[in-house]
Amino acid sequence: MSDLSAFIRGLPKAELHLHIEGSLEPELMFELARRNRIALPFGSVEEVRAAYAFSNLQDFLDIYYQGARVLLTEEDFRDLALAYFRRVAADGCRHVELFFDPQTHTDRGVPFAVVADGLLAGMAQAERDLGITSKLILCYLRHLPEEAAFETLRQAEPYLDRIAGVGLDSSEVGHPPSKFARVFQASRERGLKLVAHAGEEGPPQYVWEALDLLHVDRIDHGNRSLEDPRLVERLVREGMTLTVCPLSNLKLCVVDDLAAHPLKRMLALGLHATINSDDPAYFGGYLGENWLQAAGAVGLTRDELVTLARNSFTGAFLEPDEKQRHLAALDAYVAQA
Ligand code: ADE
Ligand code: ZN
Asked: What's the gap in Å between 246 CA and the centre of ligand 2?
């Protein structure tokens, strides 16, 4: 391992863009299918992996929603979360803000409580056993009507003290943030933090809408913001965190080549970019791999790497004293590395 790789692995960092259903590895998919007596349209783990060739977001989503069908019980959701935390423990990951898609499960008859209790159990165990803290972000599926998102918010009511925020994911183009302005307002009135996928495949206009109509605290992806200099200026001025996902962008053809990824340019413009994995089981790498491959492909300097780690804590939904503790640990690491 090169010096820079070792430095990256050890760098204290947070993950702010991780769909827990996107951490379902084919091996666990088969195990859960067997446990729950669910037929899979694949004969082997190799066949599943071979199907992971996507030309756009929708290609991926079709197979991702298929995979999630094996998740039925509280134990399944706990095992899924724990498997993810065990992977990132070796990546210097100290804190995770994880997305879940309740509608993917409730629409199959799995109660909201089964999903939430299972994930919360896995998160509690990860904190006890691995020292990784985490928060839950409930995502509304944007290809469904806003009324369905309201119903999900109603189901979440008993859990709102354990849910940090809400997000917006799934098929972006044709489903602008404006479609969800009312349910985001209702979520904000309940004290929830707000994030939204915007500018992954959708135009800069969707990023403007996420800011002006949804009043988000972070933008997930945000790549296409770079097409609009006024938008860049606004994001920089507001210190808006962008949760960027390099390997996802490569696998979903948002960029043609990792060397052409805009991460370094984003930092040069003063944008508060972070590095994240999105759906690591589908995109060929967890948090550490995203850092290593992005750093190698675009040539990130040691200072840029430290800025990215710093951004991951300042952009997190942690209390100021918790952020300070993480930033102090980061400074201490950099001073001795
Ligand atoms: N759901 C899971 N991953 C996603 C992504 N990258 N974009 C939109 N929705 C998603
Ligand atoms: Zn995502």
From this structure: 11
